[in-house]
Design a protein that fits this description.
Elements lengths: L5 H17 L5 E6 L1 H23 L3 H37 L4 H32 L5 H19 L2 E5 L3 H12 L1 H12 L2 H14 L1
Antiparallel strand pairs: 1-2
Length: about 210
Amino acid sequence: KRRKRAGGASKRVHIMLKHFLLISLLAFTVTATIPSYAQRASDLAEKWEQRTNEIINEASESQRIEFEILTTQNGVIHSIEHLLSGMKKSVKSCGDANPQMKDDIRTAYTNFKGPLEAPLDNAKRRFSSLLSRQSLLTTSKMRAYFDLTNEVAIMQDQQVDWVAVTRKEDCQDFLDDLHDTGKRDELVGFLNRDFAKEINAQLKKQQAR
């Protein structure tokens, strides 16, 4: 028997995955779909959706909250890792195409990435701790589920042909983004957030109504 909120939780996971994929647009431009990945990605996504529904439909109310916390934490970590990976590729493509900008872009990327490293490591440790304490599945099975989640996102990303930034004007825009400490600090803020505390606080408010 399906519980009422299963669909809502599934939609939140879909939204997080879409965020994971779309965030890489900061550094790359999409040009075309690659058919060779389409079927495999579709099969993997179907497997992921089936597994997601299995977990949610068997979960109690409190376990669905655990699932939301884990999904949010995992999504933030891997979205930011994906963003940094795309930026690193753009650092190389811009530097190769515009040698006069190479040093400035490398330095800006190092300065952008540096303040994110410790918060990213801390976020990963919090996720591992949450994973070991959750009650939905065994730790190994739950880790396997999130490995599958991240694999689906990567496979969907590989369905498209990403063309690296090379035009001087685009590379200048990219450099300006790297110099934008406000954007970087916003990412640090996401990594430092205690989603377990926030989501549980929201639950208490709902219960008090």
